[in-house]
Amino acid sequence: MKSNGWRTVPISELCEAIYDGPHATPKKIDSGPIFLGISNLVDGRLNLSNTNHLSEKDFVKWTKRVTPRADDIVFSYETRLGEAALIPEGLKCCLGRRMALMRPNLEKTDPRFLLYAYLGPDFQNTIRARTVYGSTVNRILLTEFPSYPITVPSLDEQKEIAHILGTLDDKIKLNRQMNHTLEGMARAIFKSWFIDFDPVYAKLDGHQPFGMNAKTSALFPNSFEESPLGKIPKGWKVRKLVEITTKIGSGATPRGGSKVYVDDGISLIRSQNVYDYEFRRHGLAHITEEIAKQLKNVVVKPDDILLNITGDSILRTCVVDPSVLPARVNQHVSIIRAMPGIPCRYLHLNLVNPQMKSLLLGFDTGATRKAVTKGQLEAVPILMPSDEVLYTFDKITQFWFRRIQSNLLESRTLSSIRETLLPKLLSGTIRVNEAEKVLEAVA
Question: If 0-12 CB within 10 Å is exposed, 13-18 middle and 19+ buried, where does residue 416 land?
């Protein structure tokens, strides 16, 4: 049972104000203030790994109603109902379509607690009970939202609960930041060695490549030669993707009606799971073993590269998360499997390169939506350095990628603990001091 001091109030009582965003979309550009979309709301957090931006001029226009600030809570009122996240310090952003914002009253509520209460089962049930189901999208009415009931304890107890759950979230955030740094290091080496050819240019000028020992430097040539890709280091080759892979292929739509999808079964990877550099488990579907047999030719294996081949997410690409195996892919995702001896990360970094994406988009044959074909993928030219250079690249970077995977597994465990504690703390099933013991055990 909840302790004394818990009370049920309209959610507006805990807020200074509740705003909705503009009902339109500005022109998107490559840099500038962030245009938050509902796709940035993932499991109670803002995921900014793939973001849209707008100009400073449009930012002024799109923030006339409200400019999000630290500790505001943004949430979706259409389609992805129930999703919400806190605005972090220093994020310059505006609300996108179908998004709204709560500005917590700090004298009545702790912003982090309010977020956790929003994500808790009681308030999620309230959202489901008041959902308006439409032919195209489901929504909640913002005119009614301020009256939604929410149950909260005293401000001091709110802060204690927020501290416990926030400590877990902070560790997850730290792991994410560490992974971003490690991925950046791998991308920097890839760009230096295989796009900018820094070691070759240094040797051509008679210099020792910066930050490279003599043994590694000796692996690189000191001159260039012409190729279908222009000037490349002498002795390196250009190979078609089909020549350096053992598989390039996509799946199909599983057939079987309502019997296709199950809560626990073989993973079915769809385009919504594939982002550049990142496999997202959110929304991962599962199918029965019987249905999986329909897709026996697209069994996903460790180190497989996944690439979206249709739609708005075309050419997003990542290496599969081994924790979701066994798995299949549907018709919107292609499996690309490197030959033995060719590091999958080298191949993936080639495919995620903006120049490669521009090349592939030039092949687009989609009549009503963007698409690339298997034949077009097979013909993609890939620069192939010597085996020794590839081996050295893999040796340097594989430690970082193993650490990234370890951090992902730890974050998954922490997230599971958080999801277990959240409803129990919000229902009073366990008290703060009991939850603190759990926190100490995983600290």
Answer: exposed
286: left (phi over 0), alpha (psi -120 to 50) or beta: beta
Give DSSP secondary structure letters for 61-113: HHTSS----TT-EEEESBSSTT-EEEPPTT--EE--TTEEEEEE-TTT--HHH
**Whole-angstrom Cα Rg for the chain:** 25
Which stretches of 166-227 are assigned E, i.e. beta strand?
224-227
234-238 contacts: CB < 8 A, separation 24 or more? 235/386, 236/383, 236/384, 236/385, 236/386, 237/383, 237/384, 238/381, 238/382, 238/383, 238/384
Average per-residue pLDDT for the chain: 91
* DSSP run (H or E) holding 127: helix 121-129
Comparing CA positions, the residue from 388, 381, 393 lying closest to residue 227 is 381
Q: Which two tokens stand for residue 133?
A: 């189901």
Q: Are strands 317-319 and 305-308 parallel, antiparallel or unpaired?
A: antiparallel
Query: Which residue type does 163 have?
Result: H
The pLDDT of residue 1: 44
Q: What's the token pair of residue 388?
A: 């020794």
User: How long is the chain?
Assistant: 443
pLDDT digits (tens, 9 = 90+) for 213-223: 999 999 999 99
b/e per residue 7-43 (b: at least 16 CB within 10 A): eeeebbebbeebbbbbeeebeeeeebbbbbbbbbbbe
For the four alpha carbons of 305, 311, 315 and 318, in that order, the dihedral sign comes to: negative
* pTM of the complete model: 0.83
Find residue 52's DSSP bridge partners: 35
Distance in angstroms (rounded) separating the CA atoms of residues 161 and 418: 11
pLDDT category of residue 260 using cuts at 50, 70 and 90: confident
